């Protein structure tokens, strides 16, 4: 790994994928964004920022900087922005691998739940886990994600479902952000399910969220966003509105799990409360899409979820893009039921099962995903002045991401804040110290 203050030059990349914004709206619609490909170019990185994008190779003899730098030869390789995973549940305790066989035998989620599986199994394990155990588990996941090119992670609580354990999860996420290379952005998801001890006291649990947990989170700056699982049998539109607006008053920007199983009007609620994103959207109708577009809400699509649930239905990404010009984002939904660490795999699913073009899927996994957590002005694109979060691919162009699917060898080097933080195959990385 290189030292923190060392400048970095990435030279002679076969393709550098940069972004040109054609509009002034924020967040940008798909039609306002255009990928610009630079062949045989170079990137100059100083103090963790991209300071220049050149359309020619750089060497020690023609370096535009005089200070010592690290040189990375990207011949026959592609440079893309660091991937942004804008919807995860990265820190939890326990696993549920045996439930796969139950699903393959035809058991539904509710039937698995009745047998002691599902989310409550994870809640029980997470409640028993210490803060240190949750940090360790989160770091294990974040480190794997980094090796797959993810440099920024949105991470939710939601497996504590009481004040003590939700706060514990959020404190674990804060420690994780301090102790891993990736940036970890926290979201409070106390309304993920109804805890069993409140099964006949819904209003009492919602009061706990609003009157006790949100003020504690706001006071200690433990989260940036608040989320609700707005779904039939989970939290209603009215309950979700009450919780999200309370979070908003406490300085937490709303997000929402919307229309995943049933069309409930969750997308319209996201627009109404000024949510930064609405996630899942498998069952959203045209009125919902229109509401999201009018309000500037980012749709975050999670194709790994229906894949892991063995469903044949996927979000209607093509209609969102073609008919409503929505700035679609992608995320893994990493959780015990959808245990996917790789945004590269999600890009593949988006292309194969949602008919997104490789260019659209890459935008969705970088700039639009950054917009879904309010960071599009700093990360998610290769532009002068942006933070140098980058991935070097062992591929001649970005189309290889969905084309060469399932290949861990695609990742050559991962760079965070201008530092080389991961190299899946160091033998493929050619670096040298230059003066």
Mean residue pLDDT:
92
Alpha-carbon Rg, integer = 21 Å
Tally of individual helices: 15
Oligomeric state as shown? single chain
Q: Give the overall silhouette.
A: globular
Helical/strand content category: alpha/beta
Largest sheet: 8 strands, parallel
- In helices, the fraction of residues equals 25-40%
Task: Report how far apart the termini are.
Answer: 18 Å
- Estimated share of beta-strand residues: 15-25%
| Secondary structure: number of strands | 19
List the strand order in the largest sheet: 8-9-10-11-12-13-14-15
Uncertain parts = none
Could you walk me through the main structural features you see in this protein, from its secondary elements to its overall organization?
Helix content is 34%, strand content 23%. Helix 4 packs across helix 5 (163-179), helix 6 (202-219) packs parallel to helix 7 and helix 12 (343-354) packs across helix 13 (358-365). The chain is an alpha/beta fold and 435 residues long. The two termini are 18 Å apart.
Brief overview:
This protein has 435 residues and is of the alpha/beta class. The chain contains 15 helices and 19 strands.
Secondary structure: elements and pairs:
Blueprint: E1 7-13, E2 15-21, E3 33-38, E4 41-46, E5 49-54, E6 69-73, E7 78-81, E8 83-85, H1 98-104, H2 109-114, H3 119-128, H4 131-147, E9 150-156, H5 163-179, E10 183-191, H6 202-219, E11 225-230, H7 237-249, E12 253-258, H8 266-273, E13 277-280, H9 286-295, E14 298-301, H10 304-308, H11 317-322, E15 329-330, H12 343-354, H13 358-365, H14 367-371, E16 390-393, H15 400-403, E17 411-416, E18 419-422, E19 430-434
Parallel strand pairs: 1-6, 2-7, 8-9, 9-10, 10-11, 11-12, 12-13, 13-14, 14-15
Antiparallel strand pairs: 1-4, 2-3, 4-5, 6-19, 7-16, 16-17, 17-18
